[in-house]
Amino acid sequence: KAERWKSEKPVTRSELNRLRDEFWETAPAYGGNSAIWEALKVAVAAAQIADLETAKVILDAAGVIISEPNLSVCYDEKGHEYEIPVYCLS
Q1: Which stretch of DSSP H or E encloses residue 81?
Q2: pTM flag (> 0.70)
Q3: What burial class does residue 48 get, using C-beta atoms within 10 Å of its C-beta: 0-12 exposed, 13-18 middle, 19+ buried?
């Protein structure tokens, strides 16, 4: 189960969605493979609607190694680390 993210100041659902969109749009700039970032994005979306089997299939197919149960830290087969902020997971 994803940990709950709490903002220091109140945010609306639309502001949270904007934060998430901004992260996913810029994620490849953090390094790693853009295909892995896309797989992580799709898997997180599946997990958020409780479709954990689909999320697992996506991550397995992409060769993603899950380091943290909440998906906040993952690795690709080359060992590159992918960190996803909690606000994208909660």
Answers
A1: strand 81-83
A2: yes
A3: middle
